[in-house]
Amino acid sequence: MTCKMVILAVRGDDIGHDECIDYMHDEHAPLVNDLPNLQRYTSSLPANPEHVDYDYVAQLWFEDSEAMDEAFASEQGQQVQADAQNFLDMGATEMIPVVGETVHFDAE
After folding, report:
1. CA quadruple 46, 49, 53, 56: dihedral positive or negative?
2. CA end-to-end span of the chain, whole Å?
3. What is the C-alpha to C-alpha distance for residues 57 and 71, in angstroms, rounded to an integer?
Protein backbone atom coordinates (compact mmCIF):
# COMPACT_ATOMS: atom_id res chain seq x y z
CA MET A 1 0.00 0.00 0.00
CA THR A 2 1.31 3.43 -0.93
CA CYS A 3 2.93 5.25 1.96
CA LYS A 4 4.01 8.83 2.34
CA MET A 5 5.73 10.98 4.89
CA VAL A 6 3.97 14.30 5.46
CA ILE A 7 6.25 16.86 7.06
CA LEU A 8 5.12 20.10 8.69
CA ALA A 9 8.49 21.84 8.64
CA VAL A 10 9.33 24.53 11.19
CA ARG A 11 12.43 26.67 10.68
CA GLY A 12 15.12 27.02 13.31
CA ASP A 13 15.21 30.08 15.58
CA ASP A 14 18.21 31.58 13.78
CA ILE A 15 16.72 31.56 10.26
CA GLY A 16 13.94 33.60 8.63
CA HIS A 17 11.03 32.14 6.65
CA ASP A 18 12.37 33.17 3.22
CA GLU A 19 15.87 31.93 4.05
CA CYS A 20 14.37 28.61 5.21
CA ILE A 21 12.49 28.18 1.94
CA ASP A 22 15.56 29.09 -0.12
CA TYR A 23 17.68 26.56 1.78
CA MET A 24 15.03 23.88 1.35
CA HIS A 25 14.85 24.44 -2.44
CA ASP A 26 18.57 24.95 -3.08
CA GLU A 27 20.29 22.63 -0.60
CA HIS A 28 17.87 20.19 1.05
CA ALA A 29 15.59 19.16 -1.82
CA PRO A 30 18.47 17.84 -3.98
CA LEU A 31 19.47 15.55 -1.08
CA VAL A 32 15.88 14.34 -0.66
CA ASN A 33 15.63 13.69 -4.41
CA ASP A 34 18.38 11.08 -4.05
CA LEU A 35 16.60 9.04 -1.35
CA PRO A 36 16.35 5.39 -2.39
CA ASN A 37 12.81 4.19 -3.16
CA LEU A 38 11.45 7.74 -3.42
CA GLN A 39 8.59 7.91 -5.95
CA ARG A 40 7.48 11.52 -5.60
CA TYR A 41 8.45 14.58 -3.56
CA THR A 42 6.48 17.81 -3.29
CA SER A 43 6.56 20.88 -1.09
CA SER A 44 3.93 23.54 -0.53
CA LEU A 45 4.01 26.88 1.24
CA PRO A 46 1.28 28.15 3.55
CA ALA A 47 -0.83 30.92 2.04
CA ASN A 48 -0.39 33.00 5.21
CA PRO A 49 2.85 31.87 6.90
CA GLU A 50 2.49 34.44 9.67
CA HIS A 51 -0.74 32.72 10.82
CA VAL A 52 0.54 29.14 11.08
CA ASP A 53 3.18 27.33 13.11
CA TYR A 54 5.05 25.81 10.15
CA ASP A 55 7.02 27.14 7.18
CA TYR A 56 6.22 24.53 4.55
CA VAL A 57 4.65 21.14 4.02
CA ALA A 58 6.64 18.39 2.33
CA GLN A 59 5.25 15.09 1.08
CA LEU A 60 7.44 12.12 0.17
CA TRP A 61 5.78 9.13 -1.54
CA PHE A 62 7.02 5.54 -1.35
CA GLU A 63 5.66 2.20 -2.59
CA ASP A 64 5.05 0.99 0.96
CA SER A 65 6.14 1.56 4.56
CA GLU A 66 9.07 -0.84 4.21
CA ALA A 67 10.42 1.17 1.26
CA MET A 68 10.07 4.36 3.32
CA ASP A 69 11.85 2.82 6.31
CA GLU A 70 14.68 1.65 4.04
CA ALA A 71 15.00 5.14 2.57
CA PHE A 72 15.37 6.86 5.94
CA ALA A 73 17.70 4.15 7.29
CA SER A 74 20.00 4.42 4.26
CA GLU A 75 23.19 6.47 4.14
CA GLN A 76 21.37 9.06 2.00
CA GLY A 77 18.49 9.08 4.49
CA GLN A 78 20.92 9.80 7.29
CA GLN A 79 22.38 12.70 5.26
CA VAL A 80 18.89 14.10 4.67
CA GLN A 81 18.06 13.94 8.36
CA ALA A 82 21.39 15.50 9.36
CA ASP A 83 20.95 18.32 6.83
CA ALA A 84 17.43 19.05 8.12
CA GLN A 85 19.01 20.05 11.43
CA ASN A 86 20.89 22.83 9.60
CA PHE A 87 17.72 24.85 9.01
CA LEU A 88 14.77 23.24 10.82
CA ASP A 89 13.71 23.02 14.44
CA MET A 90 13.43 19.23 14.60
CA GLY A 91 11.67 19.39 17.97
CA ALA A 92 8.85 21.46 16.46
CA THR A 93 8.83 19.87 12.99
CA GLU A 94 6.21 17.14 12.66
CA MET A 95 6.89 14.04 10.55
CA ILE A 96 3.67 12.11 9.97
CA PRO A 97 3.79 8.75 8.16
CA VAL A 98 0.49 7.95 6.45
CA VAL A 99 -0.75 5.06 4.29
CA GLY A 100 -3.27 4.96 1.48
CA GLU A 101 -5.19 7.87 0.07
CA THR A 102 -8.90 8.30 -0.44
CA VAL A 103 -10.04 10.72 -3.14
CA HIS A 104 -13.35 12.21 -2.06
CA PHE A 105 -13.71 14.49 -5.07
CA ASP A 106 -11.80 15.05 -8.28
CA ALA A 107 -13.09 17.63 -10.77
CA GLU A 108 -11.05 16.12 -13.60
Report:
1. positive
2. 24
3. 19
Cβ count within 10 A of residue 84: 20
Q: Report whether 17 contacts 45 (CB < 8 A).
A: no
79/77 Cα distance (integer angstroms): 5
pLDDT digits (tens, 9 = 90+) for 51-68: 999 999 999 999 999 999
Burial of 48 by CB count in 10 Å (0-12 exposed, 13-18 middle, 19+ buried)? exposed
Q: What is the pTM of this model?
A: 0.92
SS (H, E, C) 39-82: CEEEEECCCCHHHCCCCEEEEEEECCHHHHHHHHHCHHHHHHHH
Q: Give phi and psi for 34, each to the nearest 5.
A: -95, 5
Looking at every residue in the chain, the average pLDDT score rounds to 96
* Helix or strand holding residue 6 (H, E): strand 3-9
